[in-house]
Amino acid sequence: MLLDYRDASRRKIGRLMVDTAQRPTRVRFDDGREVFLHWDNAVDDAGQLRRCVACGCPNLFRDRAFPQVTSFVVILAFAGAIISALGLATPPILVAMSVVFVLDVSIFLFSKRRLTCYRCRSTYRQLPIAPYHRNWDRAIAEKHPPPTPTPGTARPARASS
After folding, report:
1. DSSP 37-77
2. What is the pTM of this model?
3. Of 150 and 115, which is predicted with more confidence?
4. CB neighbours (10 Å) of residue 111?
């Protein structure tokens, strides 16, 4: 599995390729940093991940990893919808909108699924995902609030919704 490891304050430490059959307890990143992985009760009987090996949290959610071009394709689709709603769609614009539609659907179909930890936000890719993992749930996410920054460490501001 491919692990994007994050620490307890959700800062990205690095990316690792971890062999789940060997279950290494200590791994080293390219910069020389070593971390310990928590494999106790992390894998179920079928060999699928059920807990975060970075922090030990039992709550994981599944989501899709979309490529960065997705936002550009969505903006093009929105622009095409506005053009057609205004009645300005000509045959070349309809062809372009069809291409954008095919791009949008193919991005959705070929995007990879991943598991993400609610607590530390470490992500797990290239592994089978058990059916009991659900999509992101607000009630579970509220149980794992983001860590409060300690004085002297800058944390990017989040937009309120």
Report:
1. ---TTTB-TTS-B-S-TTT--S-EEEEEE--TTHHHHHHHH
2. 0.73
3. 115
4. 14
Q: Which two tokens stand for residue 85?
A: 């709603």
Pair 123, 51 in one domain: yes
Q: Does a structural domain hold residue 159? A: no
Strand, helix or coil for residue 18? coil
pLDDT digits (tens, 9 = 90+) for 110-129: 888 999 999 999 999 999 99
Residues 6+ apart with CB under 8 A from 10: 120, 121, 146, 147
Residues 12 and 82 in one domain: no
CA distances from 128 to 1, 27, 45, 132, 133 (A): 9, 22, 13, 12, 11
Distance CA 123, CA 114 (A): 7
What is the rounded distance in angstroms from the CA atom of residue 55 to the CA atom of residue 40?
Answer: 11
Classify residue 150: in a domain, yes or no: no
DSSP codes joined into one string, 115-157? EEETTT--EEESS---TT--B--HHHHHHSPPPPPPTT-----
Domain extent for 35: 2-64+112-141
